Amino acid sequence: LLSMSMQADPKVQLLKYLLASDVAKAHEVLQLVSQLLVATRRGGTEVAASAIEGAWYMLSSGLSHSKVPAPSLSFFSSSQFMHDGSWMNGGLFKALAQREGADVKFSMPHVRISEGMMKVEVQAEIAPGHEKTLSYAAQMKHLGRATLRRTLVSFDLPQPLGSLRPVLSMDDLIDVVYSDDDMLILVDEAGHTEILLSESIVDSALHSKSGDILSASELLASPTLALSH
Q: What is the pLDDT of residues 8-36, one digit of tens each?
């Protein structure tokens, strides 16, 4: 069981909800994010470009926006594509699965931000035991205070498609509303929220010494997470 202090910690409550819910509801996540920002007074503070660099896991990839149309994806020639909809929270991967009409299981997206670039990668299980790596890359330009312009550069798929580039420029403005060594919370102009948790915390907490994957409840009760906030 979580200690009383951990139960009351808005950061842990947010993680608990994301890890324990099969389909996290966007409005409930936003309420938890608001509670975290009020408790920590982080909202609106300046964030250095270097503060978001590192390796992360995207905990919010399963967020459900009930009022947002499903994203769509179209291919043009052998090297270009067009995406309609948000690409927050792995929207490109979801659009590809919808286009192909496939029941694809995605791993938790891995995110690496370094030297003004963001790379997001997932393992897609098309059939039991059959996985493919999908990724996209975007340029990140710091515009001051806590605002970034993110421009999609490529969508990298298995052969024969390979690396594709967008037909039209795809960029968005995102605000870093929360940032510490453990967690990043990004919000775009439409209010889509992306929540990233440090790779080191996830790797330490999800794997026991024997190499077994721990459950969400074990992650929440782990010493690693307890020490992270």
A: 688 888 877 777 655 667 778 888 888 88
